[in-house]
Specification:
CATH architecture: Orthogonal Bundle
CATH topology: Lysozyme
Shape: globular
Radius of gyration: 26 Å
Distance between the termini: 81 Å
Helix content: 40-55%
Structural class: mainly alpha
Oligomer: single chain
Number of domains: 1
Strand content: under 5%
Largest sheet: none
Number of strands: 0
């Protein structure tokens, strides 16, 4: 059982550094499941931040936590027949992150609809290797809303935060020598060679 941070409500706004522990929980859960590439994991996490700020207690904004609207990490809608029903059957709270991860493993493949832009099955999604393609694919094939460009930023942020920073660029090659300095060096080398003889 992982330790999750959550706040029940529909008016919470977090930035991505606030719930880093929750992002780490998602990463570890998916890695333990096996079969997910790094890009697929990042796509799932980026979409969770977009949907819920990574807060498993999040409700859909402005809906007064009504069970007919979305709730949870991926804003399952309607919550009453999805995450709440599942949690009740498990004898657990709907806002428990571990319960939501277990439900995600059922709901992601079941709710997956292949889009024209991203014609990947759920299994093919799990094997993607580009974090941006994975983020967009998950959005269009599972979340299915209006795309927001910050999802790409979330993907980049979580890839660097959870898997290490982007490799540094190679160093710049040294500047070519100044022709005047090169002439002086040549003259000096010739002079020294004559002195040594």
């Amino acid at each position: 059982m992982a330790t999750w941070t959550h706040t029940e409500g529909d008016g919470y706004y977090y930035n991505h550094m606030t719930l880093t522990g929750n992002a780490q929980n998602i990463k570890e859960y998916l890695e333990n499941q096996g079969g997910f590439t790094q890009a697929a994991i990042i796509g799932i996490i980026a979409n969770a931040e977009h949907e819920s700020y990574l807060n498993p207690g999040q409700g859909e904004h402005g809906k007064d936590m009504s069970n007919q609207y979305g709730k949870g990490l991926w804003m399952w809608t309607p919550a009453r027949t999805k995450i709440i029903s599942y949690a009740n059957n498990q004898g657990a709270n709907w806002y428990d992150g571990d319960v939501q991860m277990d439900y995600a493993m059922i709901s992601f493949p079941d709710g997956w609809i292949t889009s024209q832009s991203y014609p990947y099955t759920w299994y093919q999604y799990t094997q993607l290797t580009d974090i941006y393609e994975a983020t967009r694919c998950f959005f269009y094939n599972f979340e299915r809303g209006t795309w927001h460009d910050e999802l790409d930023e979330y993907a980049q942020f979580w890839n660097e935060t959870l898997y290490g920073s982007t490799p540094p660029l190679p160093p710049d090659p040294p500047d070519p020598p100044d022709p005047e300095e090169e002439d002086e060096m040549r003259w000096l080398a010739m002079f020294m060679s004559k002195m040594i003889r």
